[in-house]
Amino acid sequence: MYEIEEKIIEIMKDNGIDIIATLPCDKAKNLFYLIPQHFHEVALNKEEDGIGICAGAYLAGGKPAIVMQSSGLGNSMNALMSLTRTYELPLPVITSWRGVYKEKIPAQIPFNKNLPRMLKAFDIPYTIIDNNSKIKLIDNAICDAYENNRIHVTLISPKTWENEGGEEAELTGRFPKRERETIAEYKKTIHEPEMTRYDAIKTIAEYLDEEAVVSNIGIPGKELYGINDRDLNFYMLGSYSQASSIGLGMALALKTKRETVVLDGDGSLLATSVLPTIAAENPQNLTIFCLDNGTLGSTGDQLTNAYSGVDMELIAIASGIKTITKKAQTGKELRSTIEGLYDNKGPRFIHVIVKPGIAGENRAGAVANIKLRPEQIKKRFMRAMI
C-alpha cells in the first residue's frame, strides 16, 4: 500500500537517521504518517526551527534529517547558510517538490519552479526524483550530506507517488484523546531592571560544570566567551532566532545524559516558533535562560515587544512549558534560581530581566570578538561532548 514511502523509511533507517524534524505536505501525506512510527519525529511549527534542531542534534551525537514541503526551503535559507553551511554540518533535506507537476495552487509555483536555480546559486547540492525508479537516489543524497559535511536537498516530485496503488492512510486510531483542562492563574510584576546582561551571564557562568551551553548571537556570545570560555560552549555566529532550537536538538540527542543550557534573548525568542515544540517534546535536560533586556541589543538596542507589552515567561507558559518557569529580577533571585535549578526536571524557562545597553564590566564595550573560527567551535564542542 505504501511501497514507495516504506522504501524511503528503509533508506533513512539504513543510513542511521535517528531524529527527523518534519513539517508536512499534502502530496506526501502517507510518508509523514509513517515517519513517527519509525523515528523520533520533532513536529515543527516553522521549517527554519528544524534547521537549528538538526544542528543541535548532530553536535550532540545524533544523526538528524529534515523532511518538509519544498516551499519551506524559502523559510530556511538564512539558517541553512549561516548555521549549517557556516559550521560545515551535515543535513539531508528531503522535500516534497511543489509547483512543478500538475500544481493546482498558483501560490506554489513562483518560488518552487525556480528552486533548482536557487540551490545552484547557493552552491547547495540537490537531487531530483521525478519517478519512483529513482527513489534509491535518496541514499546517495544522505551519504553525500554526511560524508562531506554539507547540505543535500532531495526534491521529490508528486509524479513519484502518482501510480502508487492502495488507499490513503486511515485516520482512525491516529488521534489520542484531546480532552484536557487548562487553568490559567498568573499575576506577576516586572520591575525596573537591576542587573546588566553581562552580570547575569557572569552569574550563570559561575555555576556551569558539565552542561552543554548554547549562546545567542552577537554580544551575549562575546560576553560569555570573555567571561568563561570553555569547550562545551557553542557560540552562535549567525542564524538569528535559532539558539533555543539548537538547544532542543542537543537535549533530544543527549536525552538525560547531559544537561543543556541556552542563553537566549527576548528578541530571538519572539522571532521563533520553537517554544510550543519544546513543550511538546518535553526534554527533561533543557534549561532556557531568556535574558530579557527588552531590546535587540546587538543591533543598537531597538525596542522589542517585550519591553513594555509582552511577558516572556507568560509566553512560555502559554506555549505549554509548565514543569518550571520563573522570573529572576535581581542577582540574588538569579543565584537562588540557579542553585535549585536541577531540583526539578525540565524543560525549565528562566525569565531574567536585565537592563538594556552594554553596561556593567562591559560598559566600555571592552568584550572582544570571539577568536575562534566556526570549524574550531564545532570540533572542540563535539570533542568535549564525547
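Next protein, fold it too.
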Amino acid sequence: MTNTMEKAKTQVFNNFIDGKWVKSETGRTFASLNPANQDEVIGQFPLSNANDTKKAVDAAHKAFQEWKRTPAPERAELILKAAALLEDRKEELARNMVREMGKVIKEARGDVQEAIDMAKYAAGEGRRLLGMTVPSELRNKFAMAVRAPIGVIGVITPWNFPVAIPSWKILPALVAGNTVVFKPASETPYVALQFVEILAEAGLPPGVVNFITGSGREVGTPLIEDPRVGCISVTGSSETGRKIAGRCGELMKRITCELGGKNAICVMEDADLDLAVDGALWGAFGTAGQRCTATSRVIIHEKVYKEFAERFVERAKKLRIGDGLDPQNDVGPVVNKDQLKSINEYVEIGKNEGAKLLFGGRILTDGALAKGCFHEPTVFGDVKANMRIAQEEIFGPVTALIPVKNFEEAIEVANGTQYGLSLSMYTRDVNRAFKAIEDLESGIVYINAPTIGAEIQLPFGGVKQTGNGHREAGTTAIEQFTEWKTVYVDYSGHLQKAQIDKYEGQ
C-alpha cells in the first residue's frame, strides 16, 4: 500500500482523484483520532472544498465513457482481484478499523469479511446483469429490456461500518458500469482510504473511483448539486437523509437512502430465554450499540419479564469494556466525545421520564478508559412504549425493556415507531412465528435471532423513516445503480403499429 499504518500517526493523507493522490487546494486538514485513546492521532486528512469535489467529479465523468464500454465480465475480474486483496489484508484492515472507530476486533474482522463477500458477489453479477426478454404481440418483432449504467455515483457513507457499507455501494456500482466519487465519514477516513487503495491496486483505471474527504457542507453538498452526478447513495441519520432526499427530489436525481432504526426484539412467554438473552445482549451492546440495526428495545411478555430482566442485567454486568484490540473485551468505545455526550443525555432523559435504571448509565473514566470515549452498557426497565428512549434512535449501548401483556401488544409496540429496519420475534410457536413475519412492519424480520446485520445475498433496508424504499446488497444490489432500457427490434420489413394493427377491425 502507498500509505502504511506505521506512518499514519504523523502523516498527512491526500485525496485520490483521477488515479493520483493529490492535496486539497485548501491546505487545511482534520485529525482522525483513536476513540479508545484520543491522544493517539491516526492521521491528518484533507478538509476539501467544492473545487476539490468538482475535480473528483470531472475525473469520474471523463472515466465513465470508457468504463461503461468495458465488458461487464472484465469489470468483474477487477472486483474479484479486489476481493483477493481484501482477504490478504483482512487482519490489517480490521486492526486499523478498531483503532479508528472502536469496535472490538472480532466485529472488525466481520466488517471486512462482509466486504470480501460483497466483492465476490458483485463480481458474479458481471456475468449476469440480468435483463429480460418477453414475447411481442406482433410477428417478426423482438422485445427485451436491458440494464444501463447511470453514470457518476456519489457515495456518502457512515463511520460505524467503514469498510462493509462502502463495499455495498461502490462494488455493485462499478460492476454495473458506473464511476464513483466516494466521501467517507470524517470519523473513519483512514480505513476508507485503505479500501480505495485496494481498488486501485486491483487495477481500476484512473478516475473510476475517486476519494475525497471533508465536511458535508464543503464536499457532500457540491457532490449532490453537481448535475453530472446521476445518483447519490447515502447511509446516515434520518435527518440527514431527509435533507439529501429532498434536494435530490428537486433536482430529479436518483437517491438511495439507508437511514435510522429503533429496532426491537419481542420475547414471548414460550421463548427459549437463554437464547433470547444471548440475542438481546449481542443485539443491544455489539458495536457499543452503534448500529442502525441495534436492539434498542426488548419487548417482553409480562409472564417472563422479571426473569428475563434479571438474567439480562446479570449478563450485562459481566461484559468487559475496553480497547477493542484486546480480544478479551466485549464492548469498545463509542466513536467520539460528541456521541458520548449524546448517549449520556439520553440516559438522563430516560431517568426523567420515569424509566427504571436497572444497570449502567455512566461515562467511564477510570484507569485505562480515561483517555477514551467509553460508556457503560445501560439497561432501563419498566419502559413505556411512548417514552423518548423507546422512540428515538440513541445509537449507543442503551436498551429499553418494555413489558407487554400478549403477542398482539408486542406486535403493536414493535411497530409503534417511525422506523422500520429490523424487528425480531422469539417464540417456539411456529404459528406465531409466521404471524410475526406477516405483521411486523420492517424491512428485515428475524425469528429467534437478534436484530443484527444481514447476509449480502439478500436485500438490506427498511420501511417508513428508515429509508426511501431502495434496498442494498442481494438481488437489488445492481438495481439501484442501473437504468432500464427497453429495446424493440422489428424485422418484419414493414411498418407495424402494435395495438392498432393487432386489434384493427375488432
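About the second fold: The CA atoms of residues 342 and 394 lie 8 Å apart.
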